[in-house]
Amino acid sequence: SGTALHMAADHDHPQVVRLLVQHRANPNITNKDGATPLYLAVTPEKPSLLVGVKSEEQWLARHPTSSSAGAVAELLQHPSLSINHRCGPDGQTALLWAAKAGQAQCVEQLLAARADPSVVALGGTAMDFASLLMHPGNAACARMLRAYGARFAGELDASKAISQSASAESS
């Protein structure tokens, strides 16, 4: 659901995405679920639409991963795209979801476009989800994330504590 741009991104129609964006479609607009076109483009399919699926992880284990890499590439070219927009009630970003779903090509595109791998949602970073879940593509996602300096949520917490301790000692 959402705008024509949401639909084009969700169904990987890069030419339509390009045309809509050229005619001033807002790449940061959210649908009723809080999802942007970019978020929908990296989402292989929508678990909420499937009957009998109890969790995202159960759904991901049953379904092959495929993404809208062409639509992602088109959206990433827009200068006002909010690449780290937090979607829905869980606050997941496109990078977090792509890493969780094992979408290696999308993870690479997002990292190259400067998506922030340190964003924490649902208690973890993209690195946490890429490393903990065993879906096709997760290992490749974890390697790419590490190459871009991504860290686990626990590593971020430790760095923050060390930094705060050093600041307190110097004041």
Write a concise synopsis of the structure shown.
Helix content is 51%, strand content 0%.
Characterization of the model:
The protein has helices spanning 4-10, 14-22, 37-42, 56-62, 69-76, 94-100, 104-112, 126-132, 138-147, 153-170. With 171 residues, it is an all-alpha fold.
The radius of gyration computed from the alpha-carbon positions, rounded to a whole number of angstroms, is 17 Å
First-to-last CA distance? 52 Å
Number of strands: 0
Biggest beta sheet attributes: none
Report mean pLDDT, rounded to a whole number: 83
Instruction: Find the structural class using helix and strand composition.
Output: mainly alpha
Kindly state the percentage of residues in helix: 40-55%
Low-confidence spans = 46-54
- Number of helices, where a helix is a run of at least 4 consecutive DSSP H or I residues: 10
Spell out the helices and strands N to C: HHHHHHHHHH
Rough outline: globular
Proportion of residues in extended strands: under 5%
Write the layout of secondary structure elements.
Elements: H1 4-10, H2 14-22, H3 37-42, H4 56-62, H5 69-76, H6 94-100, H7 104-112, H8 126-132, H9 138-147, H10 153-170
Record keyword descriptors for this entry.
171 residues; globular
